[in-house]
């Protein structure tokens, strides 16, 4: 109980570079429909206790406490039905505590409860002055988690061709997408309409109040950067020290986002191919030829399953998230060229959260439910076909897969999307530090500058790392020092700083 008090932040530091970091504090809600929250929500005291093991992970050490936050199902009706949002925290280790530092690790659909203890050693310096706090967003894991399909049905769906070549394959692809959406609707019920990014941003502001912080100090990674931008738009006066790493381009719609990813993954693949001594264009042609062969004839794997074209694309993409996994990709591709799909299938299983017993995780289910409620754009089959040559030109390896994904991802979805692109303009907010990585495969580097521009003048501050992999913090001493100085001392670096 005592952990819920004493969490105010003093802003700290002189702002650096002439910027005042100690911005105004406010507990008001930016959305009029959410004003005047009942005290049953704002004065609640989460019952922190030992975290329990879940189906996907063992219980963390006694350093970690878990609790449930009560939030409205519908933020337009704060007096109505409520749901629970799972929280996890570890208290600050030092005496000079700033407050809580809230993390979202991306997805959408990633579990903060399972990821936070794993990530904690990376941010051990920050824990000296912050309570490390994360959560499962609504629809995820401990927060009314949604499972749209059984393990058996997921494995059966892996035989569906995600780059269809015939009318029959097109029909099967779109039917599988529609069936997935129906399964989500059956599992989620009313929650299906209330798992949007703005819904979760409002949950975060309630967390801020319940944790006792006058400002929200936040560390968002990948999709977590979009969530942070939406929070800043809704609650600019409540923004404290905010880091956005691996920044999503907020100006991209569904098709634009897919093109960005095709560009990012192809860039990362080119860098990987160069590291092995190959010409990127020639290496990409060889990989495209391998994928064509798999489309016609999947490869056997040691498990008795088969490596399809669609699974191979995922298996190639996963190691590009981290340079440390490039050697695995080399071995897997070598084996595939020799007729063994085991390595690439194992990498695809890692991405799909499939364990050795055939159980699958559900973060991809939540990801689809959240993103299809956010995104209004629904490209038709014919619209997608017209776009495919453009996708192929961007990436001969990933373009076709990501192009088709625009048609299938939210096809015949049971609920309408809310917007084409998220609102992230945050005039008056304190400076927000954006970290862009030139070799990021999933959130290409250009997204950081576009987010900075959308946040507004004197709000978005860009830091560049010339590196590889998804995200920069924890991979570069220069980035870590700059971010830590900002979060711990309040010193804002000069906009445009580069770490190489």
Description:
This protein has 500 residues and is of the alpha/beta class. Helix content is 40%, strand content 14%. It has helices at residues 39-42, 112-119, 124-127, 151-157, 167-188, 197-211, 223-234, 254-275, 280-296, 309-317, 326-337, 342-351, 363-374, 381-394, 399-408, 446-455, 477-489, and strands at 49-50, 65-72, 82-90, 99-104, 130-135, 216-221, 239-245, 299-300, 306-307, 432-439, 460-468, 497-499. Strand 6, helix 7 (223-234) and strand 7 (239-245) form a beta-alpha-beta unit. The longest helix has 22 residues, at 167-188. It is globular, with a radius of gyration of 22 Å. The model is unreliable at 1-34 (pLDDT under 50).
Strands, helices and their partners?
Blueprint (H helix, E strand, L loop, with lengths): L38 H4 L6 E2 L14 E8 L9 E9 L8 E6 L7 H8 L4 H4 L2 E6 L15 H7 L9 H22 L8 H15 L4 E6 L1 H12 L4 E7 L8 H22 L4 H17 L2 E2 L5 E2 L1 H9 L8 H12 L4 H10 L11 H12 L6 H14 L4 H10 L23 E8 L6 H10 L4 E9 L8 H13 L7 E3 L1
Parallel strand pairs: 4-5, 4-6, 6-7, 7-10, 10-11, 11-12
Antiparallel strand pairs: 1-2, 2-3, 3-5, 8-9
Helix pairs in contact: 6-7, 8-9, 8-15, 9-10, 10-12, 11-12, 14-15
Features:
500 residues, alpha/beta, ten-stranded mixed sheet, two-stranded antiparallel ribbon, 17 helices, 40% helix
